[in-house]
Each structure stands twice: as structure tokens, then as C-alpha cells.
Amino acid sequence: MKLSLLSSGLAIFLQLASAAPTPTSDENVVQERANIAKRATITDIATTGYATQNGGTTGGNGGTVTTVSTLAQFTTAMTLQGSLLFLGLSLVQFRCELGPITLVGIGLYINKSANVIVRNIISQKVLAANGDGIGIQISTNVWVDHCELLSDLDNGKDYYDGLIDITHASEWVTVSNSYLHDHYKASLIGHSDNNGAQDTGHLHVTQHNNYWENIGSRTPSIRFGTGHVFNSYFKNMSTGIDTRDGAEVLVQSNVFTDVDEPIAALYSDDTGYAVAIDNDLGGESNTAPAGNLTASSMPYSYSLLGSGSVVAAVVGTAGATLSF
To answer: Which residues form the Pectate lyase domain (predicted)?
Structure first.
């Protein structure tokens, strides 16, 4: 197993043991997810969503390779503080070759960084005191792809923090082909009602082809920003997409099963807005007020599966299923 970090002049390979998580899906789905969904290469760049904007997201494509075998060597390129791995570099690619690697109780923190790619990582049970599974702050052009993030529902809702939180005016972010499950508060985009001065005009985030299962809320909860959620499957949760504080969200080609409030504007005094097109809401309703986005509002091209094809396309493919 190789874990690699590529910067503009450095690629780090670390031999680590991996362990498969225990999803709550049925056995056939688990077996299907274990099959490799696609081949990937180190030269892959973001081709979908907001991560394609502002010059694009290419990660450490072209960096030289250095092999390391100890955590001490690894932390010359990444800073380990307690149970957080800090990425404070530009032009970084963080991925696992040959198969996924599991980080248990270790949060990945992308701070003040640009042009970052995170792929094929499994993150489990990061305690709230240790941050989020993946936390993105004050960063631009970040692509999180084919990852799996989970905790459990055996403890209170504040025992863990977020699975993927995108905050503090981060920009041009895509989260794609990922499996997020068994968690209370999954994904914040914009962390506080009181942070509008920093966040307004920023937080452009695309989330697509993701599988959200057994979640309490926040899939995502978005404040102040602009979101695009498409081709995703939401299963068994209380609240789904929550738009707040003037946020605008375009929601297309998704399926919601056993979700009490699939699309809503909740928990903030200032409402957010959502435009929903071709979504299977499982018999529930979109209760968020309509905003200004349209199907042609996005500054990038994208392909919709159609809500009738989402479940078959996403389940078993979303997650850390790449082979390099």
C-alpha cells in the first residue's frame, strides 16, 4: 500500500497498513464497492464542478518522487499535530495507490492551501476534539474524489464533528464520487451565521455523484455560498440539503429515500434558497424558497444521469474504489 503526497517538487510514498471499514449497506453492495470502479492516474485533474474554475485543479502533477518509510519522514511534507494532518502547501496531491488506506481518528486539515487533490482515502471516527474527517479552510481549488468518510451513531451528535467541512471563504471546491455514512452532522459549507463578512461571495462548491447514507443532517448545510448538488443518492436521514443565510443551491438529478426533509431552509434567521430540478424526493417536498439559479447558471459543463438512473450508478461506485 502506498500513500502519496505530491507537491510542486515532491512526491512522498508511505507504506501503511489499510483496513476496510464496516459499512451498513447490504452485503451485495459491500461486495460491489470492494470491486475497483475505475483506473486512475497521477496525472488526473479535476474535470467537473467548481474545482475546474480559477485556472483548474491539477494537484502535484509533475512533481518528483521521494520514497519514505517512517512517519517522521512523512511529516517533513505534512505537519502532524496531535490527531490532525495539516496540509499547508500549494500544489499538493494526496492519494493512495493500489487500494484505499484507512485513517482512523486522524483528521486531514487543508488550510491556506491552493490546488489540492485528495483521492482514495477512507477516514473513520475523527473525534470532535480532533476536527473533521476532511476540513478545508481558507483554501482554493480543492478536489476531493472517491473518498469514504464515516463515524458511528452510537454516541451523541457532538462526539464527532463533520465528515467534510468547507469553511472560511474557501473557493472552487468539488466533492465527487464519495461515500459518506453513519454520522450525525456530515458536511458544513460555511461554519457560522456570524461569518458573512468573510464568506459572502465565496464558498462555490460542487457535490456530485456522492452516496450519503445513515446521516442525521447537513448533506450539506450551506451558508452564504453557491452550491451545486447533482447525481447523488441520499438514504435514511433526518434533514438533507439545508440552505441558509442567503446561500443559493442548484439541486438536480438526485434521489432521496427515507429522508424527512430532503431540501429545506432551516436553523438560521436568514433563509437560503434552492432550485430543484428532476429530483426524486421520496414523497416529501422541497420547502426552501426558490432562488435565482437555473440549469444554465453554472460556469462549467456537466452531465446529468437523470434521477431514475442515480441509484444504480452511484451505489457501489462512490467511495475509495480507485486503482492507480
So the answer is: 35-262
Identify the bridge partners of residue 223 per DSSP, sorted by sequence position. Answer: 244
Residue 139 CA to residue 214 CA, distance in Å, equals: 29
What does pTM read for this prediction?
A: 0.87
218 included as an active-site residue: yes
pLDDT digits (tens, 9 = 90+) for 4-22: 444 443 333 333 333 444 4
Enter the C-alpha cell of residue 19.
483496513
Catalytic residue among 95, 119, 218, 223: 218
Cα–Cα distance between 273 and 292 in angstroms, integer?
A: 8
Half-sphere exposure of 65 (CA within 13 A, CB side): 7
Q: For residue range 46-83, what is the model confidence (pLDDT) as tens digits?
A: 999 999 999 999 887 666 544 444 545 555 556 545 55
Q: Name all domains of the chain by residue range, CATH numbers in brackets.
A: 2-323 (2.160.20.10)
Written as nine digits, the cell of 11 is 512526491
